[in-house]
Amino acid sequence: MSQSAQALSHHDGSRKAGQSSRLGWIDILRLGLVQAALGAIVVLTNSTLNRVMIVELGLAAIVPGLLVGVHYGVQITRPLWGHRSDTGGSRTVWILIGLGLLALSGTLASATTLLFGQSQTLGLTIAFIAYVLIGVGIGASGTSLLALLATRTPPERRATAATITWMMMIMGIIITSIITGIALEPYSHTRLIEVTAATGATAFVIAWLAVLGIERKPTVTPAQAASGPPVRFSDSLREVWHDGEARLFTLFIAMSMLAYSTQDLILEPFAGLLFGLTPGQSTQLSGTQHAGVFLGMAAVGMGGFLFGRRYPGLSRQFIIAGCLGSAATLALLCLASTVAPHWPLGPHIFVLGFANGMFAVAAIGTMMQLATQGRTGNAGMRMGVWGAAQAVSFGLGGLLGSISLDLGRMMTGDDGSAFGLVFGLEALLFLASTMVALRIGRRRSSIQRSVTSQSTSIQAAE
Q: Whole-prediction pTM value?
């Protein structure tokens, strides 16, 4: 039997072996609760605590900015945690270990609000340690969660599964923001610590109940089971890097997420400086954008649910449409910056959010699809590599946007021109990301056609 026929036979055997352990819709919803728990803890450290450091503690804005950058930077270790979940026999253990560490380190970070009043150096040192641990917790838990979803979700459900989990994360952030906002009144540092600790404990219990028993059936792939000793970290990483498709997708994630995050820190200043929006109005504009993101994700999920089985490449089409839509709306923002305030900014930002949501959740669905393509059953490693690329790009994106805006203002002396330059840069990044996305899946599709053709020829000869 030829190698191609053997590969096809192995694929069929793997498919049949994995059908009994596939996740149903209820299981996917349960794992969505874990993602919501992650979002609930992270929103307190990335949003509430940032505001407290700047307003209540009077620290320079660069301090919380650098701390958030630290936790993104630490997530370059995601491949390590993905490999641990591949070889550790249980992904849910790493999900809970990471989430527990995140809850504890989030509480430690909030406790630094008391330390900063005594010693700036001591407060900054402990805060740095806390944010390093926050990055480790997010990396260990989030990577293992995505790997579990990728290996156990049927291919035709992966786009919808990605949508469900990310929408539940957004809902977790919204619910947490409302409840903790009420609980923090009247504000005190002690109350912040209590609320953060209670949120972390509640999130951990919810996640523990959500994953309880979900791995009763083995999640180790047939390739892993037949390979004997666990694959070494260096060998697993090398296998991913030598996979041209995985390397191409890593480039796409890095470029598209850099474009996606570059606007984060400049959109509200843009609305304030050029359109005269108050802080409250610009915050509402941010809510409008997130509403668009939410509906964009929902559109991808609905499309996957209705047509995913009939059109296997639908996620790729959503990625391309989302990237092109994002590029077009950003290019139009360049025009808006020249005619402000005479521009329908609210509807425009909603459309931008919709396009962003489409491409982002479709990219997660494609990530889950490609994670199961490895020869050594290293879905966790692959998720780790792509998660690291995403985290690094997110960390650099806000910095790139801020620096580009400052340089633009220095060169042109005009706010509108400076914002236009940044939005134009983002549009170009999205166009470049689209060109990369067009190449994703081409090689794999041609190989699958070749294998199918050879298998048909062999069966006819027999």
A: 0.75
